Structure formats: structure tokens, C-alpha cells
Amino acid sequence: MPDRRRVATRVALASSAALALHVSAAEVPASASAGAGVASRAVCTRTPTAARALDRFGQVMLHGRFVAYSPTSLQMVDGQPTRADPASIRADLQVLRPHFDGLITYGSVNGAQAIPAIAASLGFRAVIIGVWDPYDPSQLDAAIGAARAHPDIVTGISLGNELVFTKRHSFTDLAALAVSVRRRLPAIAVSTTEPFHMFYGSEAAVLLHQMDFMLVNVHPVFQPWFRRAPDHNAAEFVVNVVTKLTDVYCGPILVKEVGVPTAPPEGGFTPERQASFFAELLTQFPPARERSFAYFAAFDAPWRAFDEIADPAHASSAVMHPEEAHWGLFDERRRPKPAVARVPMLEGAPR
Predict the structure, then answer these.
(1) Which parts of 69-223 are beta strand (E)?
(2) Above pLDDT 70, what percent of the chain?
(3) Is the pTM of this model over 0.90?
């Protein structure tokens, strides 16, 4: 995942063109309506061949629950990923299963190929496979291979995470890629992920027309008012953002990333704040077939405290962001934090 402090800064800079992010959550709809370049008509796209996958996706949105998941055994060491082993993945998913039956992943290689089969064996109902670099043929081929091998659980493919926002690719690039992937996987729903404000502008329409569902990142913690605002406002901000997104897109919208780190406390991040935020968000944003949110994230990842673009050969250049290590509902040893007790058990899930 990208360095979220850079993300926060750039979102704030983009706010004048998309959304007045410095205002309180209650003001979001009015300020958003004045945003420059906002698409005038919602894009409505339905791919008939992906109808079955989208129906299962909608059922989990309504009756189940998604969580953003990276294996605890998959880490970055000296700039290189370790390999996630199947036994560790199974242990991760056994911990998650009582509360979740949908997974959103970030990578398709380095052992992540095993996730769909293990998830299916544990009773998960949907997996959205993330492809970190969908322009790397080995990563894309691995995702497509896993989707073909497990069509009863893989409901979607997410082509990258914030690729337009970080200026690695354009909306047009991703639209063309989505068309290409759909030709190879006609029965699987196709999407990508961007911060919410990126979808507001009319230039995003070319990509929206090729998305079977929208994955979007909405982080109130990066708004300047977050630390002093009550959880009601933070949750309302998320709801208002999703409401505004329906002005430009009328397909299913799943907030892929929304959460609160549990440390460091001097940043206003505590386990109690994470728990109270998710409880409030669930109250204000009840699940529906077309609109829902995933819990971000499943597990802590201590290695993420360092800026991912830091050169491992020059450790002194690494930028420390301690909050990045603590997004999990569970810590890196799979121990639950207080928020887990406030995530309802799923009916029929193993206990």
C-alpha cells in the first residue's frame, strides 16, 4: 500500500477541484456540488457475462462482510517480498472467518495464489483478487489463473491500487487494461481502486464505463479535522463521500479502505478509537447490495512503518510512519484488538 501521509497531502491539494476536504463532514455534500469537473451523469455499466459473480458479490455486501487482507507471513525484507506459506494463510483466515466471509487482497503472487482455495475450504463466499502491478504479466497471469481455477469464490479482480493517483498510469490506460482482462475473464467482475476524489472528475468516465463495480479508498483519518472530531463526524464523512460517488457511478460501490490505526497515541490513534469508529460507521452505513464498506485492515504489518519507496540500500533515507504498522483489527500475532468484539459474528460462521 502507498505511503498514506503522501496520499493525505495530495488529497488535500486536490480538494479545491473535487471536494472541500477541510470542512466538517456535515458540509461535504454542499461543498462537493461546487467541485470543478464533476461528471454530469452517472455511469451505469452492467456486464451480462459477469452477472453471476456480481450477484454473489452483492450477497456478501448485504448479508456478509468484506475485510482487506494481506497474509501475515508476506512481508518486505530489504525491499524484497517474502513468500506467504499456505499454513500461515490458513491460520490467518481461520481467525477472520467468524466475522468475515469476503476477502479483498492486494497481491496475486508470492504465495497469494493459495488464498482462494484456502478461503473456499473455510467457507468464505467471495474473494476479490488484487493485482499490485497489473502491467506485470506474471502478476496478472497469476490472478487470472487463480480466478479460472476457483470461479465459485473469486468474484472480482482489482487492477492495481491507486495507480492513477500516484501517476503510474492514466484512466485511459486502466480502461484499456480492463477491456483486455474482461476478454480473458468474461465471467469475473473487473474493477480498480483509487482514492474517492479521483472518481469525481469527468476524466474518470472512460474508466468508470469499464468497471463492473467500484472499489474506493476513503480515509477520514487524513482529514485535518479528524483528531478533534467525534466518531459521528468521521463516519458521516464516509457516508457523504459514497453518496456523492453515486452522482458519477450507479454500479455497486464497496469502500475498500476505511479504518483507524491503533497507534501511536500521540497521533490520536488508539485501539479504543478504532473500535468506536467502526461501531459508529456500522450504525451510519448499514450494509446493502449496492453500497457497503470493507474493514481495513485484517492484520497489523510492522514492516509497513517504513515508507515503501525508501531505498533499502540507504536505510537512513527511510521515512518512518509508525501508524502504517497498526491498521489491523488483529495484531501481527493474530491477537484481536477491542474493535473485533464490536464486529458482529456472521450467522453460521465457525466459532
Answers:
(1) 76-77, 80-81, 102-104, 126-131, 154-161, 189-195, 214-217
(2) 85
(3) no
